[in-house]
Design brief:
Blueprint (H helix, E strand, L loop, with lengths): L2 H26 L15 E6 L15 E4 L4 E3 L2 E6 L9 E9 L7 E8 L2 E9 L5 E7 L1 H4 L6 E6 L20 E10 L3
């Protein structure tokens, strides 16, 4: 093989690696997408939908998840996610959790712990008159980057209820939240 052929082969291999890297980044970093309650946000670097048809999200579901509905997936009393970290941010990250709780006239409010990498970062609050909304949490770089592997997220409710408990059906499985979407963006400085 001549020097020219060798350089051309190297150049072609380099272009192939660059194209493959670009495609991989596009698969890992989804573009902005509109939520049912918010407009598209170009600052979002990761967004995950959990309703029926979002089968790709099954890879990040860990323990404690129940059935998927059309627009969300129910969690048990403790449900966990393992999200791939696409980079290590030096600034805080905003996590937007679009979900609804299991509230009714007999259970007018609900509080669910939101835990990231083992640290309690806040509580999801639900009230029967304001159920189903986006709640935003600011995650420090120290908490976000604490895990060596994937980002670990847990939703924990000490007293989950069933549809039967709240008078909304006969299903006796204990539930906590119905998660529609989780999105992340860098927090404003």
């Amino acid at each position: 093989m001549s020097v020219v052929q060798s350089k051309l082969a190297f150049g072609a291999a380099l272009v192939a690696v660059m194209v493959a890297s670009f495609v991989a980044v596009q698969l890992v970093l989804p573009g902005p997408s509109a939520s049912s309650t918010t407009e598209a946000d170009p600052s979002i670097f990761a967004s995950h939908d959990f309703g029926r048809g979002a089968e790709g999200e099954r890879a990040i579901l860990r323990n404690g998840w129940l059935d998927a509905r059309t627009d969300c997936r129910w969690s048990g009393g403790r449900a966990e996610l393992a999200l791939p970290k696409v980079f290590t941010p030096a600034q805080a990250v905003e996590m937007r959790v679009n979900s609804r709780g299991l509230v009714s006239a007999s259970r007018p409010s609900q509080s669910v712990n939101f835990i990231v990498n083992g640290s309690l970062v806040g509580k999801l609050q639900f009230k029967s008159e304001a159920n189903g909304r986006v709640q935003t949490f600011k995650i420090s770089p120290a908490v976000y980057n604490a895990a060596k592997g994937p980002l670990r997220i847990a939703f924990v409710e000490p007293t989950p209820a069933s549809f039967a408990d709240v008078g909304s059906g006969s299903d006796t499985r204990k539930r906590s939240i119905c998660l529609d979407r989780l999105s992340m963006s860098l927090a404003a400085s």
